[in-house]
Amino acid sequence: MTKQWVYKHKLTLGGLLVVILAIGLLASCDRSDEGKTVSVDTASGLSADASAIAAERGLTPENITAALKTYVPSGQHDEYIMFSSGGHSGQLLVIGLPSMRLLKVVGVFTPEPWQGWGYGAQGTMDVLNEGNVRGQEVRWADTHHPALSETGGDYDGQWVFLNDKANGRVAVIDLRDFETKQIVKNPVALIDHGGAMVTPDTEWVIEGGQYAAPLGWEYSSLENYAEDYRGMVTFWKFNRETGRIEPENSFALELPPYWQDLCDAGKLVSEGWVFCNSFNTEMATGGIESGNPPFEAGASQRDMDYLHIINLNKAAEVAAAGKTMEVNGFNVIPLETSIAEGLVYFAPEPKSPHGVDVTPGGEYMVISGKLDPHVTVYSFDKIQKAVAAGNFETDDYGVPVLKFEDVLEAQIEVGLGPLHTQFDDKGYAYTSLFLDTQVARWALGGAYGELHEEEDWTLVDKQDVQYNVGHIVAAEGDTVSPDGKYLVSLNKWAVDRFQNVGPLLPQNFQLIDISQPGDSLQLLYDMPIGVGEPHYAQIIKADKLAPWEVYPEVGWNPHTQSKDPNGIEAGEERIERNGNTVEIWMTAVRSHFTPEHVEIKQGDHVIWHITNVERAYDATHGFSLPGYNINLSLEPGETATFEFDATEDGVYSYYCTEFCSALHLEMTGYMLVEPSE
Ligand code: K7E
Ligand code: CUA
């Protein structure tokens, strides 16, 4: 029977591998392996045991090769790490490749109890409060695009940035401890989309807008759309020394009220420039209920929208020279200044575009029009020549519009609903096709033509995915030196791929082997994502990450990344009262808190510091104070502080929420709040 299932299937690469394996093993049937006798099935090359398992489970040769390519044995680590947006969860997902194992869900915009993110610990509350919107505590996010920090256009494994489309925010996550350090709220726009993307040395974090509104989202009637509503793109200045975005050194560009979509930074030959898509250049304002065309029709009437071509280096000079206006205290370069200084050019792009992706060398910008079956490739060199020649018309706002034929390099028919493009090391590009629910592999031209055998700018292969892919992401796929090897398809629909879990289904991440040239794409693995709808992800070589095993010193404050003045050593524990304020310095170690009794009075204000004095890898303690909504995660060396008013009297058991030792249940204490009467 094993013979049957090898030859029943056409000899794919996977099948070939099995056969090669068989030939290798034929030589030693019943060979002795570490003293054990292994009998080998001569047809499949698998041991008799493995053949029996494969037969029992109905696995095809393709299944078996996929399993061999993705299985990571216990104790071994993945070769790549994928950082994925957590969608509506507001978090960042960390996933190992090729195993597709979920390693962590990092708390970012949304409280996360296990990490003690947003449950009392001062630093975490401070960061979440930075993300408040005009005083509203916004505690969810629609995260779309994570961006790994780069040095010289390559991921350097130091930071990740993540945007929140819903409330126009950007977060900074430090990869020394995988914790969020900062959230900035965009002062100019309530909503964003084209973020976060970084420039090749992470000097700037790009946050493009989306649905136009008056700057600062001030009120104005939709009748005044063309005059009062505006688009924007913001450039956040990132300080690598402090690991923080500096709002005072950041700026935005005022743009026409087209709906800016994704952006990408130029690199190498196009470094210093930024490219953003737009749609709804029709400036449709909807109103189906009043007999107007609905948004989706009104916003897709024109054949062409505008690729925004931005001279970021020059814009930074103009901003530094103070040629800005202030919107909510934030520097904005007015549109007329941008036009006068030559900061912004447009190029026509078909048709309701979505993704813009710059090739690894920075020579080409690949655009996908959602309603156009082609990808359109622009040449940076031609853009520069067209700008220099001054051969352009202007849009209604006076922005120069370069001629399509002057800047076009190629158009490749890839299929229906193209969205996003990624690159590999073999001169191929990959474009997601939402409507065809496929991933297209196509051959780049120019300098990349030497890397592959196919004709330049031609379609090479298509891989079915399940179902309706949004973004795709290739290993190191946004860098100047992509690795190829793996591609993940971030599918919007799962339908029948997994056990039915009710009407709300997970999304489906599918791992695809892109290591071989030609029409060889192979689907390897499905990973359900049940915590929100991720949009984009980036994949970094795991050995570029060097996070701490424990915090550098006992008494470490993760939010300042330095020793906390209230961090203590064992033996320094104490409780001090000053009027109505009680301050506690506590330590945690296996398997006790010191002190174990905290006696206070109703109405006291309590300031409580806890230091985990452990130096052992993975010796984390939790701290829960029920009734006061406190939960901390105290990683080895960490000091955390929380404050509260003891409004309620009673007996409160605080306890460790991490199963840290055999006597973990005994790691507890009493807080006694004596009634004030
Ligand atoms: Cu296409 Cu926000 Cu990048 Cu979703 S976006 S898919
Ligand atoms: Cu410490 Cu459980």
Task: Describe the fold and architecture.
The structure is a single chain. By secondary structure, the chain is mainly β. It folds into three domains: 3-59, no CATH class; 80-285 and 295-544, YVTN repeat-like/Quinoprotein amine dehydrogenase (Methylamine Dehydrogenase, Chain H); 556-674, Cupredoxins -  blue copper proteins (Immunoglobulin-like). The protein contains eleven helices and 46 strands. The strands form 13 sheets. It has a six-stranded mixed beta sheet. Strands 37, 38, 39, 41 and 44 form a five-stranded mixed beta sheet that branches. A hairpin with a 7-residue loop joins β14 (259-265) and β15. α2 (13-26) packs across α4. The longest helix is centred in the first third of the chain and has 14 residues, at 13-26. Residues 1-35 have low confidence and may be disordered. The protein binds sulfanyl-(tricuprio-$l^{4}-sulfanyl)copper (K7E) and dinuclear copper ion. Dinuclear copper ion binds next to loops.
List its traits.
globular, Methylamine Dehydrogenase, Chain H, mainly beta, Immunoglobulin-like, binds sulfanyl-(tricuprio-$l^{4}-sulfanyl)copper, 46 strands, disordered N terminus, 11 helices, binds dinuclear copper ion, 13% helix, 677 residues
Summary of the model, kept short:
With 677 residues, the protein is mainly beta. Helix content is 13%, strand content 41%.
Helix/strand layout:
Layout: H1 2-7, H2 13-26, E1 31-33, E2 36-38, H3 48-57, H4 61-70, E3 80-85, E4 92-97, E5 101-106, H5 122-130, E6 143-151, E7 154-164, E8 169-174, E9 179-185, E10 195-198, E11 204-208, H6 225-228, E12 231-239, E13 244-255, E14 259-265, E15 273-279, H7 295-298, E16 305-311, H8 312-320, E17 325-327, E18 330-333, H9 335-341, E19 344-349, E20 353-358, E21 364-369, E22 374-379, H10 380-389, E23 392-394, E24 400-402, H11 404-407, E25 408-413, E26 418-423, E27 428-433, E28 438-443, E29 458-464, E30 469-475, E31 484-491, E32 507-513, E33 522-529, E34 537-541, E35 556-557, E36 562-563, E37 574-578, E38 581-589, E39 592-594, E40 597-601, E41 605-612, E42 621-625, E43 630-634, E44 639-645, E45 650-655, E46 668-674
This protein binds sulfanyl-(tricuprio-$l^{4}-sulfanyl)copper and dinuclear copper ion.
